[in-house]
Design brief:
heterodimer, A: 258 residues, mainly alpha, B: 338 residues, alpha/beta
Chain lengths: 258, 338
Amino acid sequence: MNRYLVFLEKEITENIRTKKLLVLACVFLFFGLTSPLLARYMAELFEFLMPAAEAELFMMFMPAAVWPDSYTQFYSNISQTGAIVIIFMFMGLVLREKRSGTADLVFCKGVSPAPFILAKFTVSAVVSLLCLAVAILINYGYTVFLFEEGGQIGYVLAGAAAYGVFLTMLISWVVLASTLAKSTAGSAAMGFLGFIGILTVGALPRVGRFLPTELMTNNVSVTLGNFYPDFAAHLFIAAGMAAVFLGLAIIILKKQEL
Amino acid sequence: MSNDNIPAVAARNLTKRYGTSRAKNGALAVDGIDITVPAGCCCGFLGKNGAGKTTTIKMLVGLKKPTAGEISIMGAPQVFGGRKQLPFGYLPDVPTFYPYMTGAEFLTFCAKLCGVPAGKRPALVKELLDRVGLGKARGAIAGYSRGMKQRLGIAQALVNDPKVIFMDEPISALDPIGRRDVADIIRGLKAGGDCSIIFSTHILNDVEEICDYVLIIEKGRIMAQDYLTHLKLKYRRNKAEIRFYEAEAAQRFKQAAEAENTEILLEAASPLSFEARLKGDTAESEEAFVRAASHLSRGINALLGKHELPIESYTAHNPALEEIFYAAINPTPEGGAL
């Protein structure tokens, strides 16, 4: 049996039995369910919570809720929180095996680091993308239910796919951080610094367009069918970054002593 | 070279230096050691805590990169980072497993990694679990005791039908029952004769009971390596213990020896026994040793016969591993000890 498939099977089992999949699914589903509700009833919520006089003033300036608000709410909720949850969930992917000694038992059997790393990345990415897909579909269905319109499903999925590609790139970075770091805190710090670095540099004029940050920050316009000019380039850049991070993780793990 | 002559493990000039500076304290963990462990033997790798046992074993199994030196296992070169599956199994000092798996699932996972065909896996896993006494263990590994984990660790080391098994302190940290169980498993492996066993420990009794070959390491240097029987011959001393039934006979013997045979030195070990040796005996060669031993026993026999003194026992010196170990790690300037 191909060793990549052996590790794949083991990682799937681990994600199910250690409840990682459940936790991730709960976080994404929470945003998928609550975002349309918040978007639809935001005005009523403020009216209920604020003093009557202020609420009346607020309602005068509050535009009526429309279906795109549902996606604005979804992405503003999930984009950073989802990324942070991903970093927390996967920061120990490689590190934990090295520190606990399970990696010793695996690598003394003549196993190459490539299937080990790639299986961890594959399952983490697939699990995250599945949760995201379910969340966006629920968000779409609920939006249609509450607003009687939810946009074109193709564009809705494209907007989520953009965020999914960004998350996949982020997971590859977390895998690299987990391979390099010698402690959980170090791995978490590297994961967060990388994430903040991509956001910061991505926001800079001129240089920013060479990083795929907009895949995370510009999803609503994609959902509305307005693909920004660098969209395709950013997909390729994110895929390239993921390949580089994973390649580095494999090379580094091969040279590391256990 | 025939297969019979290929050592199970051979290492030449094996060195491990942590850090880059020679001046750094404790930087040199393994200091250019040469090891040859013959195939088919059970080798005890002895050393104090911090002597370099774990570092050496981790280099031998390819988990640590030697600073210098060469390693071969059953004649095949062991290269750090090389991913060729060599015919060995490895049990780390504190084996850790995926806690959510059962023992059978973990062994199946290992069997898949080692390329065991799907049709053979269930039987292999059952055989290994039975062999280490985990055939009836149920539930996830998270619920296993330390002894059970150690036994599962041995089972996973056997998955690829290895020719050599490395075990790092497999017994030291276990309770008496766990120690007995794991020692029995190692004895069983030894009796099977299919593979060579190398296990590190700082507990001398374990080695004396189980092993037939010994490596002694101290401060990163190999101080002795040979078959245990050879080491016992090498470190034996020309002395004997004479034990009497009665204290009076013992006293008469001492007086007779002092008066009639000035070559024999007696040292009282108890009111009923003496340690006897020849004065000025420094015989190092085998021939000189046998001659001196014979001279000593003849001299004592003559005295006993002449004075008609009955003895309970006459025991020529046979060094315990403890004596060998201390002599090896504290060598005298003459190269001898004890």
